[in-house]
Every structure is written in C-alpha cells, then in structure tokens.
Amino acid sequence: MDKIKTIIEKEWAEVFKNRLVLFTVIFLPLFFTALSLIILVLVGSGDSTEATMDTADMPEQFARGVCQGIGGADCLQVFIGSQFMVMFMLLPVLIPVTIASYSIVGEKTTRSLEALLATPITTIQLLVGKGLAAAIPAVVATWLGFAIYMVGTALVSNSSVFGRLFGPLWLLAILVLGPLLAVLAVALAVMVSSRVSDPRVAEQLSAVVVIPIVLFMLGQTAGFIVLNTQIILLLVPIFVLIDAGLTYLAVKTFERENILTRWK
C-alpha cells in the first residue's frame, strides 16, 4: 500500500505541473456547472405559455413520467437539467484520460520510466497507483462540481424541480456510476499509453472512450433513451465486471520486460 501511495504522490507531483491537466481538472467542472445553472435560470425566467409549448416537443415517456404533477415551466427545467446531468457523467471520463494517457508514455519521453521499472514495485502496484492518481482527481472534481450544481439548483428553482433532478436516479449515476466510468477510462488509457510512443497519440486514442457517453447524451435528448433508476442499478454491476476485466487486461498487456526495448 505504501508503494501505491508513493506512486500516486509522484504522479500528482509531475502531472499537475502540466497546465493542460490543471485546466482540465479545474476548469471543465466549473464550466459545466456554471453553464447548467445559467441555462436553468434562463429557462425558469421564461414565459409559462412558451414553456408549455416547449414541453410538447419533449420525449413522451419523459413528459408523462418525470413531469407528471408539475407545470410546463418546471417540466422544462427538469428536462434541461437532466441533459446537463449527463455532462457530469462525462467529467469522470474526460479528466482522467488526460492524466492516464500521459502516465506511461510521458515517462518514457522524459526518461524516467527506466528508473521506475528498475524498482521492486510489481506491475499491479505500478498500474493501480497510476490509475488511482488519474481517477481520484476526476471523481473529486466531478463530485465537487455536482455539489455546487445541487446548491445552485436549490437557489434558482423550486422544490419540485430540485426533487426530480436530485432523486435516486442521478445520485446513483453521478456518485456510483461516475467512479466506475473513471476506472474504465483509466484502464483503457493505461493500455493505450503502454503501447504507443507519443503522448499526443495516447491522448487521441484514449479519448475514444468518450464517444459512447456522447452518443448516450444525444440519444436521451432525442428521446431514444430515457434513463431510469432500474437501468442505473443494472449498469452498476455490469461496469464493475467491465472494469475488473479491463484492469486485468491492462496488467496482462503491460509487458514490463519488453516495453523499454520495444520503445528504444
């Protein structure tokens, strides 16, 4: 455990010198949170008749289920707020990719990987340390942004809107499924990073993991997908298994003995 902690501290000391990493960890959650709250305020201050007309364009399943018992303006706020919730599921994928994709190939370019691999640390300890160093800032930044979003929503909306937005569905999605998505992104980024020799290529290939989340967001906006608590409860064990499998593959594909000679 001490070795993993040492790896984490070493990673943070190095990666947070990178302005792009700091920008990603700090700016993205603040930007998503501010944008979400501004649009909620604009929607809430709109004309109620116009809002009622807008609800007619919403997915029927959403309007009939989530919006039952509330007015058109409140329903529109809930719908818009739900779309931004998906962005908070993007953060634990976007943020760690920047850190994890640099974690191995970046050390190769700075000539520090040789010394690290020469230590008695095991491959599992090395990759777990690097993975946690990438995932922890992403999860913490996401949760902080989400907490600010909760407080801001409570201030700019009424209790009906707040209760529907911050029910079990999105709490499970952000607080439980979000970290699992971060582990998935980290595992893929580490596998890519251990196989390529250019940090920019590692980042570009690792960013592919964002595509399914973006497609999901578009599908929910268009009404093809309506997320509910049952789906989230089903996805959690599925992603636990996927994360375990990808972590196992990341360890197996990291050829410690050959990796340096292959990159020379």
Summary tags:
264 residues; mainly alpha; 82% helix; elongated
Helix and strand sequence: HHHHHHHHHHHHHH
- Characterize the biggest β-sheet: none
Oligomer: single chain
The portion of residues assigned to helices is: over 70%
Structural class: mainly alpha
Unreliable stretches: 48-56
Give a short overview.
The protein is an all-alpha fold. The protein has helices at residues 2-15, 19-44, 48-55, 60-65, 72-103, 105-109, 113-117, 123-156, 159-165, 168-193, 199-206, 210-222, 229-253, 256-263.
Question: How would you characterize the overall build of this protein?
Answer:
The protein has 264 residues and is mainly alpha-helical. Helix content is 82%, strand content 0%. The chain has helices spanning 2-15, 19-44, 48-55, 60-65, 72-103, 105-109, 113-117, 123-156, 159-165, 168-193, 199-206, 210-222, 229-253, 256-263. Helix 5 packs antiparallel against helix 8 (123-156). It is elongated and about 65 Å long.
SSE layout and pairings?
Layout: H1 2-15, H2 19-44, H3 48-55, H4 60-65, H5 72-103, H6 105-109, H7 113-117, H8 123-156, H9 159-165, H10 168-193, H11 199-206, H12 210-222, H13 229-253, H14 256-263
